[in-house]
Amino acid sequence: MSNKKTNMDITTLRHSTSHVLAAAVLEMFPEARFAIGPAIENGFYYDFDLPRTLIPEDLLILEEKMQEIIKANYAFERAEISITEARTDFEKLNQNYKVELINELEKNGNKKVSVYKSGPFVDLCSGPHLNSTGEISADAFKLTKISGAYWRGNEKNKMLQRIYGVVFTSKAELKNYIHLLEEAEKRDHRKLGKELDLFHIDEKVGIGLPLWHPKGALLWRIVEDYWYSEHLKNGYELVRSPHIGNRILWETSGHWGFYNSSMYPPMEVGQTLEDRQNNIKPKESEEFLLKPMNCPFHVQIYNNNLRSYREFPFRWAECGTVYRFEKKGELSGLTRVRGFTQDDAHIFCRADQVEEELKKVIDFILHIFKSFGFDTDLINVYLSLRDPKNKKKYAGNDTGWEFTQDILKKIATEKKLNFIEEEGEAAFYGPKLDFKLKDVLGREWQCSTLQFDFNLPERFDMTFINNKGEKERPYVLHRALFGSFERFLALLIEHYAGAFPTWLSPVQVAIIPISEKFNEYAHSVETQFIASCIRTSVDNSNESLGKRIRLAEKQKIPYILVVGEKEMTDETVAVRKRGEEKKQEVLKVSEFLEKVKKEIDEKK
User: Superfamily for 2-179?
Assistant: First the structure.
C-alpha cells in the first residue's frame, strides 16, 4: 500500500539536537563560525569553521556541554526578521557563512527570514524545532565522528569540519544503534574483502576500480552463472555490447548533453602523438566515449531490423561494465565505484503487454532476492513520479506519463508492495519503481529498478509495424535486478558477514591431513569432490594442525574435513561444520558428498 513520508517528529528532534551541538561548540570555541546543520538519517551533522583541528576527545567534551544545555531546558524561540536586520546581526557575530546564505535568500526574493534562539545561541533557520532543549533525552544522543566537508560541497571553497551525531527518543534505541554500528564494523565488506582475500582497490590502477582476486572473482562467477541461468528460464535473450561507443551515439541518446559531467572525456583516434603535441587536427578522426550505460546499444540492436507487432515482447539482458566519473569523495568500497557491471535488461513491448511484463519483472526481482537469502518483507519500494508543476523538464507527453504512472501504481498495489510515492523524483525520461533493500543492520540500499523510457524511443525513432500496418512506437522498460554486481556483492559479503551459504562459498570444503603421511589420501578425496563440482582445497602446509584448522575457520569455509590414519583406513572424513566447531561427525566420503551436494542444489 502507498505511504506518505511523514517523519516530522523524529526529523525535528534531530535538527533540534544539531542546534544544541552548535551551541556547545560556541561555548568551547567562541570564535567558531557556523555553516549548516541539517537532520539526516538516524541523526544530524553541523559544519564549522574552527580555530584548530578537532580530535576525538573533543567529542566527549562537547557531549558533556550538550547535556548541560539540554538540562537547562532552554526554549526554542522563533522570530521572523527582515533580511537587512538578519544580515546586520550575523555580520556583528562575524558569521560570514550565515551572511552568505542571507544574501542568497535576498536574491531569491525573500524579504524576511526566520531565526531561532535557544538560551544564548541564535541561528538562521527555517525550523521547525522542539518546544525546548529539555525535550531531548540527555542519554539518547551521541557524537559519532569528525570529517572534512567543503563549504557548499564545492572543492574550490574552504574545507570545514563536520561533526556527526545520532539521536533517538530513548537510551535503549541509542544502545541498539551503537550495537548495530559495532556489528557494521565487523561486517564491513572492505575489511572482510581483505581478510577473505576477495578484492582490493589499488591507487596505481585507479581509485574506484576494484581488482578481484581469485576467490572474489570466483564468487562473482557463481553469482553471474546463477543470474544467467535464471534469465534464460524467465524468457530473456542475452546480448553483448562494447565498452566504448562513437560520440554520435551518445549525442543522439542525450547522454552527452545531459550527463557528460559524469562521463569520461572523449577519446580521439586517428591522431598521432606528434599531431597531439603540435595541436594538429587530423584529416580523419573519430571520437569515442566510455559507456556510462548500456541502453543505447540495445536500442541499436532493436533498430537493426524492421519489427512487427507479432514479435513482441523482446527481453534482452546483459551484464555490461559501464564507467562513470564519480567524485573522489563519493567513492566507497564496492558500493560506489567508477567502473561497475550493471545487470541490465531492456524490455521492448506493445502497450497491451506492459502490465504483464511489469508483473513478471516484479516477481523476478523478489525471487532473486529470496534466492540469495534476503528478506523481501524488508524491501521498500519508491514510486517516482514527475513533478506536475514542472512538466517541461520531462520527455514524453501527458498521455504517456499518465498511462505509465497509473499502471505502475496499479501493479505495485496489486502486488501488495510497501511503496511510497515521490513526486518530482522521476527520471526526465520516465517514471520508475526503485526497490531498496534493508540489510541485516537496517540500512537501506538501492538495488533493483524498473523504469519507463520516453526519451530513447523518440531520439532513436524506434518503431514497429502494428496490426493495422502502421508505424507505432514501442514501450521501453529499463530493468536491473542487482543494480550493479559490485554493490550487490558488497551487500552479500555484509549480509552473511563473509560466512556465505555453501552454494555461494568460493571454497566449500577444506581438507586438512593430520600429517604429511595422509596427504595422498587428502588429495584423492579432493579429486572425488572436484569431480562432483565441489569447490575444494587441501591445506598440507607445514603449520600445526590446530593452526591450519583456525586458518580455515577464519576463512569462513563451510566445511573442514580432517583426515588421518582411521579416516584413510575406513574411507571416511571427520567433518567440522562452520558454526558447529565443537561437534565433529565422521562420515563415509560418499555420504558426505551426497549431503553437501543436496545442500548446494537446494541453495540452503
Answer: Threonyl-trna Synthetase; Chain A, domain 2 (3.30.980.10)
Establish whether the linkage from the previous residue to 313 is cis, with ω within 30° of 0.
yes
Summarize pLDDT for 329-380 with one digit per residue, the tens.
789 999 999 999 999 999 999 999 999 999 999 999 999 999 999 988 888 9
Q: Please state whether 424 falls in left (phi above 0), alpha (psi between -120 and 50) or beta.
A: left
352 is catalytic: no
Segments of the chain assigned to CATH 3.40.50.800: 509-601
| pLDDT single digits (tens) 385-394 | 999 888 888 8
Residue 71 designated active-site: no
Say what the pTM is.
0.81
One of 129, 162, 189, 295 is an active-site residue; which one? 295
> Which segments of the chain belong to CATH 3.30.930.10?
217-278+288-495
Amino acid at 308: S
State the burial class of residue 444 (Cβ atoms within 10 Å of its Cβ: 0-12, 13-18, 19+): middle
- Tell me whether residue 432 is one of the annotated catalytic residues: yes
The architecture of the domain spanning 509-601 is: 3-Layer(aba) Sandwich (3.40)
Supply φ then ψ for residue 567, to 5 degrees.
-65, -40
List 95, 161, 342, 555, catalytic entry: 342
19 in catalytic set: no
The H or E element that residue 287 is part of is strand 286-290
Q: Indicate which residue of 123, 343, 344, 539 is catalytic.
A: 344
Is 295 part of the annotated catalytic residue set?
A: yes
Do residues 342 and 480 touch, judged by C-beta distance below 8 A?
Answer: yes
Q: 217-278+288-495 maps to which CATH number?
A: 3.30.930.10
